[in-house]
Structure prediction request, 310 residues.
Amino acid sequence: MTDAKTPAAMEPQIYVRPHNWRDFIWKVILSYGILDFLEYAIPSLFADRDADQEVSFQLDMPLPLLDSTTDKGERKVDLLLKIPVKTKTTIPVVVLVEQQHKHDQEFSQRMYDSYIRYDASHLKVPTVVFALYTGDFYDVNYFFKEAYGTSIRLEYQSISIKDLNLDELEDDSRPFARVLQAAYLAYKSGDDPNKAEENAAEVFRSVMKYKYTKEQHDRLCIFINGLFYLKNIELSPQFKEEFKMQLGHISLEEYAMKLGLEEGLERGLERGREEGREEGREEGREETRFTIAKNMLAFGIHIDNITQIT
Prediction:
């Protein structure tokens, strides 16, 4: 059977994802799938949480300065979670989450800085730091510093997308396993739209295999559409027919805005602009694109149209 796609539809450029997309999508996934994330990543905290109280989150949380006279520059953590627990105290557990894609030799130092800055001003608050590695680079889960017999070590938990075991994920019924399965297969798809369609189909079938609540099912479908950036692929008729219900949900951007993440989206555009400069893109061109995108967002133009134009 011949592929119904035209040669033009198979050109790689139809699957070019915005450079700020990765940062934005993980903020949405972690923010609005907090309990799914906790159940998978920190099961002991998930078990201890007070289910009668709501968890809360804050994006791009500024961290306190350790010394206003010597500490230069603002330091933010990608996501701060507050998890009420079943203890005699009313103090929630705080989880600081950092998502990292590119190699950074100072990343473990940043994790330590985040922990020490928050802990120094919240001494009675139990604080957890967690790293999510989404790129193809060596990752670590500790910071160590030593000088003349004095040492300090901070260990933290992490998930590395590239090191996940696909067979184990497929057999895991927890909702966040579907998110990680999608992330792993999207990572393996690279810039090949045909591979992305094939892998997205595999994840959608896994979602259909397990008995999730309607809310979980709908949220997972939105995330999977976003992780594979399916809106930018000319999908085959067979795929559209088999997964028409899964494709019929609102976009990830609409989902985020519906839940009040407009400010987070604008920050994502800003971060994407900064990353573009680091990767050697022309600064003037990036400034123009960001200004246009920001102005269009302010005028109420849909984010799908902004992405296509800029």
User: Anything to note?
Assistant: The longest strand covers residues 75-83.
